[in-house]
Amino acid sequence: MAEANWYVVHTYSGYENKVKADLEKTIENRKLQDVILEVAVPVQDVVEVKNGVRKATQKKMFPGYVLVNMVMNDDTWYIVRNTRGVTGFVGPGSKAVPLSEAEMANMGIHDGGVMLEYAVGDSVLVVKGVWEGTIGAIRSINESKQTLTIAVDMFGRETPVELELDSVKKM
Hints:
Blueprint: E1 5-11, H1 16-29, E2 36-40, E3 43-50, E4 53-60, E5 65-70, H2 74-81, E6 86-89, H3 101-106, E7 123-126, E8 135-142, E9 147-154, E10 157-164, E11 168-170
Antiparallel strand pairs: 1-5, 1-6, 2-5, 3-4, 7-8, 7-11, 8-9, 9-10
């Protein structure tokens, strides 16, 4: 089977989330999860100050564009290209050009998700904070919050403690 790559799809401005929802529905209905792996609308968190009130919102990083991780073939090209709101793939003419590894890294997209040096079950040493010097075993990892939960021995009982990734060191 061919390799999946990230492609940039141009949409009508303001239709990014609609295109994402329509594509995901089509993928589910046609059972294409193995060839169209992910549809993303990259956003960033920003803090706006209006009338002296701070408000956290999300802004689209690339208005008018949607990123699609897929195996390119005639069928997947046709499905994505003919989704309502899509004006075409980014590339010369009608040829879709995949994003390079460097371009993906610049946008904060990693091919295999977030790369962590930790895994559930690993022993770690806490290097800063209240638990500094404590050794524990990783019970869970939350990549989106950049935290992990370790089990420490407290008063003869195993107790879960949530820590930032930068406060632990692998043993």
